[in-house]
Structures are given as structure tokens and as C-alpha cells.
Give the backbone structure.
Amino acid sequence: MGDDPRAGTLVPAQDVVDLSKLTQAFFDRKPDVSMPAQRVSFGTSGHRGSSLDTTFNEDHIVAITQAICHYRTSQGIDGPLYLGRDTHALSEPAFHVAIEVLAANGVDTAIDAGGGYTPTPVISHAILRHNKGRSKGLADGIVITPSHNPPEDGGFKYNPPTGGPAATSVTSWIEKLANDLLEGRLCDVKRLGKIGTKAPNIFSQDYMNDYVSDLDSVLDMDVIRSSGLKIGVDPMGGAAVHYWAAIAAKYGVGLTVTDATVDPTFRMIPRDWDGKVRMDCSSRFPMSRLLARKEEFDISFANDTDADRHGIVTRNGLMPPNDYLATCAFFLGSERGAFRGCNIGKTVVSSSMIDRVAGSLGRAVFEVPVGFKWFVDGLTDGSLYFCGEESAGSSFLRKDGSVWTTDKDGLIAGLLAAEISARTGQAPDVLFSNLTKDLGRGYYARIDRPADGNLRTRLAKVTVSGVSATTLGGDAIVHKIVNAPGNDAPIGGIKLSTPNGWIAARPSGTEDIYKIYAESFVSEAHLEELQRDAATILQSI
């Protein structure tokens, strides 16, 4: 199946999402908990859905928030809760409903001082900043965002005191209790009336200043400023939209925001490969606006809606996410003296170029399933200096080797591209090209395709014995894994490897699609052969 012919075009005015209908459905539609699709379900990054499908509605938010309050009590978490939201339309009503439940439960809740939007990494930074050196009065957080998902979607994430995405044991606990509350018609919920943000235990937090003023502890902002680089940034209508002007003003960098529009319909974002509006900064279709202006800047980049992902654009075009992850791992491992002895975190579906970079630096690789939650401990204790996911998410340590965030941070990823350019005199893609001369070149691709619930379930539960294939791309299969090498956790799919390449398949945790990943260290033609063989193998699962 090829790309939708509408990919790269704007949605006609008559077809943009109806915000009033979306919001009305949020309050009017009540989930039927006897239907699995309408129950609370935490995927790789929180509960997501749409009010139009009765999968993200007022009752869901009430139940999840109350469950989080109970979880806090059960764990003795009694510090502030940092609450943030992105620019999706459903984030607004969900934000106010959450406040009503948090206030009724006596939770001291911090919200943005200016009433604005808050990126995911900013909430992680706030939690860690508060908890540093504490053993009591620990903080946690909620981020209301469906990430880069379409305009009609909503999302709700919980970050415990570790600052990063909650572990499966935590989300399962919250999910079960939330569904129990829904089954009980929310009788055991505490909720105040329509209070706005004036409850006594709701207070303002200057998230932006706290985060922006701390950036020079994780990046060399002086070298970026002194380089005189022309930097372009597209916030893609997301939560970081006002942060970039503050960063430019604070550090005196030559940064231009190419579009500061905030419109919950996201009508200004070109449609993605499947014809849907999706704020995916790693996809060439939504990124076509910034790509059209690449000659204006020495380096440019974009973030998705909650700013936990990055898209890097040089004058040669959009840099593949895996290429940039390998480049970051090499640059940071070479330049930051405090990172000596620290290792690299990657997901099983990220490029093996990262493994080759690690080998060249004498570092080990901690390879885990998809999900940034697996990197939280390594970033916290400083054993992992850089962690990345193939979907353009990453974070890294402060310059002194201490933790910065334990959630993905698209802002520092973009600014690191500027630091790389300033310090080396080369754009990140040129540095990567030089790496391939010594380490070899990989040919990597990910294909996203529609999948119904049945196929997603089969893929998620596949076993090694369930795959009888012995060859792939003309080579013998030497490894079949359904658990990650780094922590033995299930990868939610399968990965097959040969001496010259590999393929992996897994269902999306947030959308009705499945993903086929493939990488060849031979040629583009061999990559295509791997993909064809993967499709044949998957048909037998």
C-alpha cells in the first residue's frame, strides 16, 4: 500500500475537525465499559483516544485522575503534582476536569503561571528539580497530550516521582482502578464543581523560566550563540510554541520561529502519509513547510505537539531519525568528558548504527523494548549518557553527568543539532556521513500500515516458535527474539536478525497500525528484499 494521494496537502476548510462537536462529545458521550475499546487503556504512553469514538471523554479523565490520586496515597506521594497540557483541542476540557478531581482530593497541583501550554520534558524537568535531594514530599506529574496524534485525539499520561513515563506495573494499577470506577458509575470519585483554577491547592508555576534558565547545564549555549548560526524552528502548533522566543531572548541565539500559529484544528499542518493530519516531525509530509525553507537557515528543526520528539533539517533535507540518534551518541560520547564510562540506551527497533558507534567509543548498549520508561533508571543514575528511540525521541545527561530529564526532550535534541554545527563546523548529517566511512552504512526504513485489532493482537503475542522462517534477505536467520537483550522485557512483537540485516514487526501502542522495521548493511535493494520477506513471514503469524 502506497502513500495517500492527499499526503503533503492541507485539509480543505470544509473538512477540518469540528471543534465544537469534538468538545460536546467529550462531555456528552459516556463510555460503555462492557466494550473493550471504550475502557481506560494505557499504551506505550498513557491513555489515548477520541471523544468522537467514546474513547477519550469526561468520564475517562475523571476516573483516571481519581485513580492517580489513590495511587499517590498508596505510595505515600504527598508533594506537588505538576500538571501540563498541549495544544490539542481535547486537552483543554481534560485539563479542567483533572483540576476539579485533583482539587477535591486535596492534591497540591501546579499549573503554568501564564495559563499556557507545557511540553512533556518540562514536566519531567520540574519533577526532578523538585525531588532532587528529597526523600519526602516527592512530586509527580500529569501531561495531557496524545503526542503527535491527529487533531481529534486526546491523551493523558502519568509521570511518577522518577520524572519519566510510568512503569507498566504503575499504569496497570491505575488502569484497573480507573475501569473499576467507571464500572461503579464514578460513585467513589471526589470532584469539585466548576472551579476554574482558583481552588486553594492549585498554584502557579513558572515552568518556562525554570526550564529555559537551566538549559546551559545540558547544552553549550555559549558556543551556539557565538557561532552566529541561523536557526529555524517550527513548533508545529504545539506546546513549545512560546518557549523558543524565550530561549532566543535568554541566550541571544539567532533563532527564528517559522510559524507561531496555535490552532487546535492543525489545519496549517500538511497531511501525513495516510492522509491524516499528524504532527510527526520525523515525517517528510508534515515537515514539508520547514523543508521548503531549509536554505534560509544553517540548521533547523521541529517538535511534535508535546515537544518530546524532534525533526532535524539541514540544507540537504530532513535527517532520518536513526542517523541523528547515532550522530548524537557519537558527538556526546566524544565531547562530554563527564560521560566517560557511561553507556548508550536504544530500543530494539533503532538502527544498528548506534551499536557500531558504541563499539567505536568503547561503550556498551542497553537495548530495550519500545517505550522511554525503560531508560528512566539509567538516566537517573547516570549510567546511560544518551537514550534514543527510532521514532525521534531522546534525552541525555547534563554536562556534569547528572540527570536532566527522564522523559524524551525534543527541545534539547534540536538545540544539540545547533551545538554540533557550531562546535564541529559541520551539520549533523555531514558528521553522520563521515561516521559511515569508518563504520559502514546502514539502509533503514520503517513502514506503517493499517491493522485491525485481531492482527495487532497476534503480533503482540507472537512467539519465537510461531515463526518458522529460517532465512531472511538471502541469509540465514541467526537470532529470533521476542524479548529485549538489555532487560529481557517483551518487545511486543518479533525481531529477526541475519549477519547482514534485520527486520522487526510490532503493533502500534497508540494507533490502529502495525510497523515493519528493517535495516540492511548491504544495499537499498537488499533492504527492499528484507521488507518483502518480512511481509511474507508476517502473513503466516
